[in-house]
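Lab notebook: predicted structure, single chain.

Context: the supervisor wants predicted structures on file for every construct in the current expression panel, including those that have not yet been purified. This is the next one on the list. No modifications to the sequence; it matches the entry in the shared construct table.
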Amino acid sequence: MIAQSNPSPPPRGSASHVVARSSAGDADTRHGVILYVENVSVSFDGFKALNGLNLYIEDGELRCIIGPNGAGKSTLMDVITGKTRPDSGQVFFGQNIDLTRLSEFRIAQAGIGRKFQRPTVFPRHSVFENMEIALPTGKRVRDTLFARLDGSQRDRIDRALEVIGLLGKRHQVAGMLSHGEKQWLEIGMLLIQEPRLLLVDEPVAGMSQQETERTAELLASLAGKHSVVVVEHDMDFVRRIARKVTVLHEGAVLAEGSMEQVQNDPRVIEVYLGA
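Prediction complete. Output recorded below exactly as produced.
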């Protein structure tokens, strides 16, 4: 069976229900879809990074996005998070939130978290303090570190640390963590903000085999409560976690389906997997 390169659009609410500002939890997913990317194009100096791209992410799913360098993966992430504005097309969070009308800060507030390839933790602070800084309090770093946490906030941090496997290292300085542990800490710093949609860019680059296996377990465990989109080049890792895979090429969807479907698609083999 050949994977489908043109996913059919699920229904979305009318434009009269569009909101420009929202808080987390307001995305309307009654039709089962949390992210609508419809006919999106982005050009840089005449180069089309995205070319009429259509992508639909279901609420609670784990989606892997693969493709050769220059396929548009990073640009797609930038568009979803508001770093790049599309030249044309629509990007909706749920049926009702038009992401093209929101700032990066408002998009994060709406419930979309992004983890970049390189971990960005505070190396001189403890693991617990990093999580404390990430709490959605609206305070500056200095204010946060000198504020008193209540019991519910401490419990919230400990629950997130348990999920990422760092509860036993809560007092360790983050700069002393391994590369993989720093990656997990940054994921935890996003989870503490309770995002509905989590975007993860090449999470296992530079990891040991054991760390890679633990990362696979972690991301798989997040699906359901969160929607998770993973961009990755490590095909063994993708095979381990993939439930549905989207292949990008030249700024558009080349193929979409199970890992078995896309890895047997002659088009995917020609432009990516066969390289």
